[in-house]
Amino acid sequence: MNLLRNIPPIHELLNDNKIAAEIEQHNISYEEAKQSLQDSVQSVRNEIRNGEFLNSSLEDLFNSIIERAVKQIEQHKIHNLQPVINGTGTILHTNLGRARLASQAIDHVVNSASYYSTLEYDVTTGKRGSRHDLVERYITNLTGAESAMVVNNNAAAVYMVLSCFAKNYEAIVSRGELVEIGGSFRVSSIMEESGTTLKEIGTTNKTHLFDYEQAIHSETKMIMKVHTSNFYMSGFTSSVDREELASLAQRHNLIYYEDLGSGLLYNLSDQGITDEPVVKDVIAKGVDLVSFSVDKLLGGPQAGIIAGKKEYIDALKKHQLARVLRVDKMTYAALEETLRLALTNQVDQIPTLRDILKDSNTIRNEVMVFLEGTKDLDPLTLEPIEMKSKVGGGTLPEVELDSFGIKVRCRVRTTEELTKQLRTCPIPIIVRVENDSVMVDFRTLERHEQDEIRKALQELNNRLK
Predict the structure, then answer these.
(1) Would you say 126 and 260 are in contact if contact means Cβ atoms under 8 Å apart?
(2) N6-(pyridoxal phosphate)lysine (modified residue): where (predicted)?
């Protein structure tokens, strides 16, 4: 325990040349440096008490404290939110930020953030404008809805619609649609928070029109249909067509609201990928309100869109929650440009749709070019491999896309060690592990990201020799 008594005081450690250099290089405060040293000293104390440093000299002890403090100081300068390379093949990876934006949308965000903007200003009249007007025309043109508004995500849209129109009343939902989405958010819980009473009908696998009809009474305000997100059933199942539900709601003077979840504006069924309903087709069936995410199949920033009949959208715009759940100018900028690209049928410019539609042969050619430029690696070995990509983000759970990638092996490191090495690159490389092998799916990689992976693998290979 003598080592504990020989740990230098903080004020002496602060005078060390390495610490002084770190303070100057990273332009950190005296207090930041002091805190890093205190954390480092505490860490060393704990290790000494656990029986470590037994054969270490005082110089070793001092150097260990300084090195840990320097590492912590440098770590503080790395942003917590940082870019990564998505080599998993999951296009809408929720943990990695879901949809990445089109370059045009990024430019519009930067431009709008760099200047004052017309967020709530009408340059024609010189008077106050409404942020609701910024993208409404794009949405109504794309969906055929009478009116629309934007909130900060689809869960917020669901909460707002229920709070505005069904608070203290009942909303009818099929048991087969009472799903739980990512982060343990349940439709039933959102309904409860909104003050809406949930009226469950049918069974998990089968719900009929008469189930809805029998549940309607004086306290019923809404029939709600919920997209099942990342869950689907097959086999002995039955649900009621939205056209029938819209007609039933109209006969009983109820609101028919559909939570569409993914919000598909581009018809992927033409490509043989999915029969997911297009928002415009849903609106055409007589639905009063729909809501959906922007950062899923639309390929935009995090936001939620509510579209439908003008009388209901007008009521939502006047509701107190409209201010609570509104989005900022940068979200509007990214959304406006994403919608403009969709409206002008430039889907190849929207990364999410481009990656979903990417042909597997194109991906295979990219892999072969990559391997041709990454030769003579040892102890690493690379081999081409056929793969299956997923859309992800709680969308199209039944869809698998033919893809191509590489399998990375190392004769001197375990798979776990290899994945950790790739995660600690200057731009972290996130891969997937299958059958104890590191797999990199090229569907979700830009060309410059492929170059980064090549560079990272070559540098890693050289370190392991």
Answers:
(1) no
(2) 296
335-358 pLDDT, tens digit per residue, is: 999 999 999 999 999 999 999 999
For the cut 60, the answer to whether the pLDDT of residue 41 exceeds it is: yes
What are the structure tokens assigned to 202, written together? Answer: 């049918």
Q: How far is CA 103 from CA 44, 153, 175, 344, in A?
A: 47, 22, 42, 16
Tokens in use for 338?
A: 């994403």
Angle in degrees, 0-180, between the axes of helices 154-165 and 310-318, rounded to the nearest 10: 100
DSSP-based three-state secondary structure for 98: coil
- Amino acid identity of residue 376, one-letter, is D
- One-letter amino acid at 267 equals N
**Beta strands 432-434; 437-441: pairing state:** antiparallel
Instruction: Supply 160's token pair.
Output: 């707002």
Distance (Å, whole) CA 127 – CA 123: 7
Band (pLDDT 50/70/90 cuts) for residue 232 is: low
Nearest to 454 by CA among 442, 437, 436, 465: 442
Indicate the pTM of the whole model. 0.88
Q: Are 138 and 312 in contact (CB under 8 A)?
A: no
Residue identified by tokens 């969308």 is: 395
d(CA 296, CA 352) in angstroms, rounded, equals: 8
3-state SS, one letter per residue, for 279-328: HHHHHHCCCCEEEEECCCCCCCCCCEEEEECHHHHHHHHHCCHHHHCCCC
Residue 201 to residue 216: CA distance in whole angstroms: 11
Q: Which residue has the higher pLDDT, 291 or 68?
A: 291
Residue indicated by tokens 């100018």: 329
Which pLDDT value is given to residue 21?
Answer: 81
Please name each of the domains of the chain with its CATH number.
2-76 (no CATH), 85-93+356-464 (3.90.1150.180), 103-346 (3.40.640.10)
Q: What's the pLDDT tens digit per position in 125-166?
A: 999 999 999 999 999 999 999 999 999 999 999 999 999 999
DSSP 8-state assignment for residue 38: H
Q: How far apart are CA 316 and CA 306, in angstroms?
A: 9
Q: How many residues comprise the chain?
A: 465
From residue 459, how far is each of 374, 379, 426, 453 by CA, in Å? 11, 12, 12, 10
Sheet holding 437-441, edge to edge: 90-92, 380-392, 395-410, 437-441, 432-434
Is 62 a residue whose pLDDT tops 90?
Answer: no
Distance, CA of 77 to CA of 390 (rounded, Å): 34
